């Protein structure tokens, strides 16, 4: 485990002590990795490697040959991930640091200088390690981010549907509260299937709609342009497809949550009280996020005002197990 900075008293005053003598620094880029080790370990102590898997294995072999135990690297984009994992698998203590925290080296910037600067700072214990979750928590976080991207894509297709209808002067969005609700989707599907009779389309609306059938029928008197109908169908099909992808993503997230709960040996009804607040259904995952969160943290943070199923899932995938330092929902609320 890498050590933090310490000072020693000398005749001339306090002096930083080398606490990680077996440290290396790696400057990460898209196509190459610059690796620096202490100059007493190899005659060529600052080497450039490629980015292919074989190159990453060569880095591991060279670091082992140089008796390196801990490595510091910058979190550059996503390029650090493969090397980070392969170093961890081979027993190295890897310190991932934010690039902006170490870019204080004056003069001409080079990859060699950056790698040496990282190695030097790490040898003195001056680097702050970025948080890295366990493998299951990382998988959940990656899938949650993927789900967010799918939701954005779904929203774009919903806007495309609305645009196509507006261009045909179909004002359905003005008379029903949610174009993507049961009534709106039933009417859109009927339009795509060739039914352009406003009265018949209005009858597909749910009884709980505030607008009357007559008003809904009036909003559905349009031009029925062939090109706009084609755009509406394509946007509708894409929206349905992406919604299916989101459901598949939810199943995958739930599978990893189950594994994570088993990994933590944390599944019990003791102390669990379901929050009585109304939880919105729109875009929410279709599994019991509240219960999984309680099993991981042993506290139901759904009681926090403003906490939703989506924000709860986001916190869970970002923080993982480490949120359990909060002891109770009361301390969550007061914080």
From TrEMBL:
Top-level lineage group: Bacteria
GO MF terms held by the record: DNA binding; transposase activity
GO biological process: DNA transposition
InterPro entries assigned: Transp_IS110-like_N (IPR002525), Transpos_IS110 (IPR047650)
Domain Transposase IS110-like N-terminal residue range list: 24-168
PANTHER family: TRANSPOSASE (PTHR33055:SF13), TRANSPOSASE FOR INSERTION SEQUENCE ELEMENT IS1111A (PTHR33055)
This protein's name: IS110 family transposase
Protein source organism: Bacteroides acidifaciens
Upper classification of the organism: Bacteria, Pseudomonadati, Bacteroidota, Bacteroidia, Bacteroidales
């Amino acid at each position: 485990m890498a050590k933090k900075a310490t000072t020693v008293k000398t005749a001339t005053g306090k002096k930083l002590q080398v606490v990680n003598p077996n440290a290396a620094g790696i400057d990460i880029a898209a196509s190459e990795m610059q690796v620096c080790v202490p100059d007493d370990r190899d005659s060529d102590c600052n080497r450039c490697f490629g980015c292919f898997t074989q190159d990453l294995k060569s880095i591991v072999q060279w670091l082992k040959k140089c008796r390196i135990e801990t490595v510091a690297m910058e979190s550059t984009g996503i390029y650090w991930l493969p090397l980070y994992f392969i170093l961890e698998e081979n027993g190295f203590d890897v310190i991932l640091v934010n690039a902006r925290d170490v870019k204080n080296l004056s003069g001409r910037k080079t990859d060699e200088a950056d790698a040496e600067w990282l190695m030097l700072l790490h040898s003195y214990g001056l680097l702050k390690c970025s948080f890295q979750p366990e493998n299951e928590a990382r998988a959940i976080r990656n899938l949650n981010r993927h789900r967010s991207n799918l939701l954005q894509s779904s929203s774009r297709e919903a806007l495309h549907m609305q645009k196509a209808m507006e261009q045909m002067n179909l004002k359905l969005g003005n008379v029903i509260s949610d174009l993507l609700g049961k009534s709106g989707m039933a009417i859109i599907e009927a339009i795509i299937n060739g039914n352009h009779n406003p009265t018949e389309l209005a009858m597909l609306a749910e009884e709980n709609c505030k607008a009357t059938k007559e008003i809904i029928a009036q909003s559905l008197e349009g031009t029925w342009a062939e090109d706009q109908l084609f755009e509406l169908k394509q946007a509708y099909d894409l929206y349905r497809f992406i919604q299916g992808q989101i459901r598949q993503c939810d199943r995958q997230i739930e599978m990893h949550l189950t594994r994570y709960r088993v990994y933590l040996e944390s599944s019990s009804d003791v102390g669990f009280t379901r929050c009585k607040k109304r939880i919105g259904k729109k875009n929410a995952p279709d599994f019991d996020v509240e219960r999984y969160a309680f099993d991981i943290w042993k506290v139901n943070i759904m009681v926090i005002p403003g906490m939703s199923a989506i924000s709860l899932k986001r916190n869970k995938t970002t923080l993982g197990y480490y949120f359990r330092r909060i002891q109770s929902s009361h301390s969550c609320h007061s914080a």
